[in-house]
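ok here's Translocation protein SEC63, seq below lol
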Amino acid sequence: MAGQKFQYDESGSTFMYFVLAFLGLIMFPSTYYFWPNTDNEKKKSVVLCNCEPCLMKEAVLKRTEPSKKMKKIAIRFALMFGWILFAFVAYKITQADYEYSNFDPYEILGIEPGSNDRDIKKAYRKLSLIYHPDKETGDEKLFMKLTKAYNALTDEEARKNWERYGNPDGPGAMSFGIALPSWIVDKENSVWVLGLYALVFMVALPTSVGMWWYRSIQYSSDKVLLSTTQLYYYFFHKSPQMQLKRALMVLAASLEFERSHNKEVQERQSDNVEIPQLIKQLPHLNEKNKERPLCFYYSIKARALLHAHLSRIALNPNTIELDRQLVVKKSPYLIQEMVTCVSQLIMLAHAGRIGKLPTLDTIESVMKMSPMIVQALWEIRSPMMQLPHITEDMQKYFMSKKRQISSIQQFCEMKDEDRKLILKSLTADQYADVMKVCSTMPLIDFKVHVEVLDDEESNVVTAGAIVTVNVTLTRNSMGSLIKGDTNALKTSANVSTIEHDEEDDKENQEAVGTEEHPSQPKKPVWQKKKSNKKSGGNKKPQANQKKPAAVLKRNASKPVTETETEDPEKVVERTKELKELPDVDESDDEAGTDGSGSDSEDSSDTHDKDKLASANEDDDDEWEKCQSKLAKNKERALEGKSKVSHPVHCPYFSDVKQEYYWTYVCDRKNKQLITAPYFCTDLVDTQECQLQFTAPKRPGFYKFTVCLRSDSYLGFDQMREIKLDVQEAKKIEEHPQWDISDEEEEKEVDSNESDEYATESDVDDEDQDDD
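and the structure came out like this:
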């Protein structure tokens, strides 16, 4: 009987399986994560024109391109080499398996099956003279194989073993090969093997893991130092109402601009001369502030570079200009961290965990810094300065008596002749650059939808309910306005600056949760349209079309909605009709005109069934919508947020920038933030997000504002007002079958006790009484 034995790999065949598995574990994830993605590179390409700042930025970006290209080429070469090695090892394994699994002595000797002994001996003698180890062309391995094949055909016992077991030696022992070469356990190599093991697993691996862990614990998920985050928390808690210049000082104090925390920061001897000269050109720098770390040298230097950047002051390209590029490149990530810190402090203050509450002005001041730094403009400057070739001297043509152009959208909506008249000082190529940049700028359709999820009536807002604000962002481009697209012009009517326009809000917004006529199906209040006098919406009914008295009674008893308060004539009309009406019982009106009520009852039954069926269909539709939204949210959470949207024209920004947006709900009257800002980083075409907050605990009318802010462009912010009619929360009614009085409970308890504890004498007495 065959035995079993364990052995190390002497020939190297099983070791190939180990190498193949090891290469597969490395190559598959490495190729997925490290192979350069050309599609993302195309999307991230910067929008360049022929203006001088764009050409300078292109030159700066090209300086870093050689190193990036060499890195990409090295990565691709390493991956291709790994896959070639993987294919080679797989090929060697297939060849080895074929040799061991296909032992055919006739094939080895090169003769046909069924040959006689003479032909076998002749073929063996001929091949042995060629491959004998003593010959120059000898091959010991092949000669042993020839001898084994010859014995299998000439020896009677070997032939039987080959025919029965496929092996001339008979049934061999079952061997388990360890996929490691035998030299690893050799005594001569034991010192080197142990030394290599100790170096890799006891020194290199713990050191690399420790260095990675030490670096990772210093940064947040957004690659911001935790020490910088703590600094932000301190200053925002210390200054609940922070102005824009104060926020710039806090941003400049970030530890990412300090040499000991960031090795990219450079300190030169020339800074002692250039930085004081730059400070003299900046009147509102407040460099004499004594607060720590606002008074530190690195903080003053970063603050001066930020002020110079916003004022578009030319710097020395070989020294502090490089520092300005580093500070500007890091600022958007730091500003997003500042927004997160302020929003968390506000939420903690609402929960009562901290005393000081940062105001809405603080978080909006922080948000304003991002487009300012991206476009290198102070807030008070005109948004038209974001276009190429536009200088400060040309602003008088935009703000003349005939025309008041304060936004890029208004400029795009003008006729081409008027635009050329304003920009007549520019050449044809410069005007083409201006229109090229305008056509790439965003035109956002900002829609807001309010509902109460997980409730029977999603349009009714009760006290303490969870209100969900669904925000839909549709990204178009200003090029549609330049071409004169009528649909885009309609969409552009929804775009407004952050300054609120009361007339537009009255036309577009209605109160949420108001009652409607009972005979009409309920619609979301944001889909209602205000009646127009010119269209005949407020005409009086004719004499032969008077409403029944009971209907007018019911209409009069309803609460006055917001649309009725806006139309006082309608309210006066309804009160006059109510005074002239006699007292009418609603039950008589419901019973029908003939008094029998049979036809009305039948019609009411069918109407109730139809109403119930439609209500069930509405519930099913709402349930499907909720499930689809949950599925979308799960997919987004699993996929992760993309950082690619549309490139921004920002010639003074030192890197390629993508369009991002903040959206949030606030109470502008009380200057409070209601929901944490949602940071949208993947608005390519359309994006939906949900903002949730708890409705006020007191019933009444409330007004909130949904804001949209861009982190890349000035003058592209929007605002929508939502009005909530908060009603009292419904009391939970107990089911009738659970309403058991105390007397009934006592009777049940007494009867149960008497039945359970009755004695035999009691039973006999009851029988005698029955007789």
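fwiw The first strand starts at residue 4 and ends at 9. kinda neat tbh
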